[in-house]
Amino acid sequence: MFSFDDQDLIQMLSLGTDSEVELDAMKEKKVEFRKYFGQLLSQSRKNAKSNECFYCGKKCSSFCNSHSIPAFFLRNIAHEGVVYNNHKLINMPLLDDDIGINKTGTFQLICRDCDSKIFSDYENPDNYEATPTSKMIAQIAMKNYLK
Ligand SMILES: [Zn+2]
Fold first, then answer.
1. Residue from 21, 12, 46, 36 nearest 95 by CA
2. Is the alpha carbon torsion for 43, 27, 16, 82 positive or negative?
3. Which alpha helices (H) appear in the chain, and where do they start and end?
4. What distance in Å separates the CA atoms of residue 89 and residue 12, rounded to the nearest whole number?
5. Any domain includes 1
6. Structural domains counted in the chain
7. Which residue from 1, 37, 83, 140 has the fewest beta carbons nearer than 10 Å?
8. What's the Cα-to-Cα distance from 114 to each of 56, 105, 119, 133, rounded to whole Å?
9. 91: exposed, middle or buried (C-beta count within 10 Å: 0-12, 13-18, 19+)?
10. Using a CB cutoff of 8 Å and minimum separation of 24, what contacts does 72-78 make?
11. For residue 32, how far is its CA from the centre of ligand 1 (angstroms)?
């Protein structure tokens, strides 16, 4: 059986650093890091980009900006168009801890036609009046997988 003392609990809750020295060092390197990180992300997306929809396999030049969490949910919790992300939990000045709704939990792998059809239950606010169906749960699982 596991037991945690207060020190263990505190370490679990603070995943980043509270050291002012380390935080200041990160802030000094923020511009350099952001530039490198942006290039790395851009290259990764370029390498992963396909010319075909991941779902239907048809040729596609413009992919849907699919949200793993429906945008209407995000609008409910956003403040001035931005929501906090998981970086907020780890005190890490190198990374932004909020992000615009249009970039939150998104992926660009499937065509607009497929996105509007295969996630229609999950993306419909009226379907949240009752318990989500197994089809909706499967759609959520697929969104998370694609993300
Ligand atoms: Zn498609």
1. 36
2. negative
3. 6-13, 20-28, 30-48, 71-77, 112-118, 134-146
4. 11
5. no
6. 1
7. 1
8. 7, 18, 8, 20
9. middle
10. 72/123, 72/125, 74/101, 74/104, 74/105, 75/101
11. 38
60 CA from centroid of ligand 1 (Å): 8
| The pair of three-digit structure tokens given for residue 93, joined into one six-digit string | 């000045």
Asked whether residue 22 is domain-assigned, the answer is yes
Sequence letter at residue 85: N
Nearest by Cα to 66 from 147, 131, 136: 147
Per-residue tokens: 131? 């318990």
Cα 109 to averaged position of ligand 1 atoms, centre (Å): 9
Q: How confident is the model at residue 14 (pLDDT cuts 50, 70, 90)?
A: low
Mean pLDDT of 59-68: 93
* Cα-to-centroid distance, 104 and ligand 1 (Å): 22
| Residue at token pair 């992000």 | 99
pLDDT digits (tens, 9 = 90+) for 69-117: 999 999 999 999 999 887 777 777 778 888 999 999 899 999 999 999 9
